[in-house]
Amino acid sequence: MTCTFGPAHCFHEGSMLMVCAYVYAAGAAFAGYIHVRRAALREHGHDSLLVHVRRVRFFPALVGVAFASRAAWFVLLDTHAMQDPNAFGGYDDMLVFLSWLDVTVDLYPLGVLLWNKLATLLYISAFALLLQFWADMLDHTMREIRAPAELSRPARQRRVLVVAIVWMYVIEIALLLGKTFCIGEPLWLTNSDGWCTALFSVILALALGYDAYRLRRYFDAQDYSRVLVSVARRVTLLGLLCSSLFILRGILLVATPVASLRATSTPWLYYAVPELAPGCLVLALMHVKHDGRDRSIFTPTERTPLVSPELMLSV
């Protein structure tokens, strides 16, 4: 135990929170490695004519920052940052009175809870990119057989997704401000973090599961090929794993009273497994092996996605 910031704010190196922080830090390093390697091998789709191929290259970066933010949150929780010990052996949030605004500000949400919300927002945004990538590529491959009336459907789906993401950020920012300025917050505001995370997780799970099902149906209707079977297995695995873990997490957060407090006592169940397993699986599938040849000539890649629709659908 290291007490760099005083006896009330010690680092407990072997605590559950710190172990989770170590694992999240390793996940962030892995995401950074994947991002840098794909950029070095020019596998980020910079030369693609398809915007959604270029957009999905940000997935490793978003997941990496999300994992780093979650690790920082766990460290701050372990050291009781922005809190003071009370007479009952617990901790109370630090309060600051701003005389020029005549308002009392709770420093805990701004200094600690902010990292939790940032991690959640970036993580869901990353998977929203993957979701839109799958939907756009499936639409691209099936454009020739679609009826004219159905051609505008992908554009509507993109608008709905963008609006949902914007509202997610607005709601989380509003809740953070509410916790900062509402001293002695009501119970519903205390539980709001868990409820919102549960709602976002379930919606994302249903959307990913639906698109994975659509992709699998598309693959099953095509002629057999090794590449197609490999990509179909990837999509099915991702769809099942992400959907099941996100839904399970949503159920746990809704069913647990004062979810944010219970979640921090069992961080593996509420945070580490539902986030690290899907995120690291996608990152592992995005890993590129360089064979020393000019891939733009020998193998269809994200730079030449029109050559092979089934490869376009692979992450």
Automatic annotation (TrEMBL):
Keywords: Membrane, Transmembrane, Transmembrane helix. The chain crosses the membrane at residues 16-36, 56-76, 118-138, 159-178, 198-215, 235-256, 268-288. InterPro entries: THH1/TOM1/TOM3 (IPR040226). It comes from the Eukaryota. This is Uncharacterized protein. It comes from Achlya hypogyna (Oomycete). The lineage of its organism: Eukaryota, Sar, Stramenopiles, Oomycota, Saprolegniomycetes.
